[in-house]
Amino acid sequence: MLTILYRGPLASCDYDCAYCPFAKRRDSPEQLRADREALERFAGWVGEQPFEVSVLFTPWGEGLVRSWYRRALVELSWLPNVAKVAIQTNLSCRTDWLSEASDRAALWVTYHPTQVAYDRFLGKVRSLPVRHSVGIVGDPAHLPDARRLRSDLPARTYLWVNAEEGRLYTDEEAAEWSAIDPLFHVSRFPHRSAGLPCRTGDSVISVNGDGTVRRCHFIPEVLGNLYDGSYRAALRPRPCPAAACDCHIGYVHLEPLGLYDVFTGGILERIPAVWP
Ligand code: SF4
Ligand code: SF4
């Protein structure tokens, strides 16, 4: 089984969050065409593999407002060798098309309170026909929204809270967020990772639009290319070369944290095995 974090050239988003960590831009028609071609090439490659693949799309911008991401999610979800296909999304897209996906499709949904009306967001989440987690950035200004969302979401829906980048939480503040997400402590501090075993570069890889393979999104060293097969010879267990890892899509694969046990069956879409 190979887990792939795919990030194509798409970098535009229909939202404009103040805390957005990405360098957003307006994609030109040529850039959108290139993103579409890269995604279709990647999806075609997945379908040709003789082994099991799981995919998490982690676009710089919003993918599901583009037809090719919606199509890829549905089509990949039906392939016999795809165990899971998930995408990080702000859920601004319409959602009726998701009923065409198999139960192997999943969403990592983030609520951005300044960008969408609460009732509109809640209504969409409640009607989702596929597995999903919902999350929010732990900005103190979002605390009332987060509490309200927790109480309005079905109990079976996991609501995660991401510690805001660079913010230090007092124990009292952390307790408030932990009352909403009991796993908030996992996100509260960056994880020291230097020298520790991490599944990336072995059973997990990061792939960009031209097929360049790296172990994860955060380590620039290139392992090879997906499409010429050169990455395969580089796959092996290896320690993390970075001082710290502070993003869930990275440290979930850091072995000493034991998060594969916490998120068994929902590692890519961030759903704990035991919830609620
Ligand atoms: S929805 Fe995500 S990508 Fe878009 S502006 Fe907000 S944080 Fe950035
Ligand atoms: S711990 Fe994080 S930064 Fe280090 S290799 Fe794993 S995913 Fe990459």
From TrEMBL:
<dbReference type="InterPro" id="IPR058240">
    <property type="entry name" value="rSAM_sf"/>
</dbReference>
<dbReference type="InterPro" id="IPR013785">
    <property type="entry name" value="Aldolase_TIM"/>
</dbReference>
<protein>
    <submittedName>
        <fullName>MoaA/NifB/PqqE/SkfB family radical SAM enzyme</fullName>
    </submittedName>
</protein>
<dbReference type="InterPro" id="IPR047771">
    <property type="entry name" value="Radical_SAM_STM4011-like"/>
</dbReference>
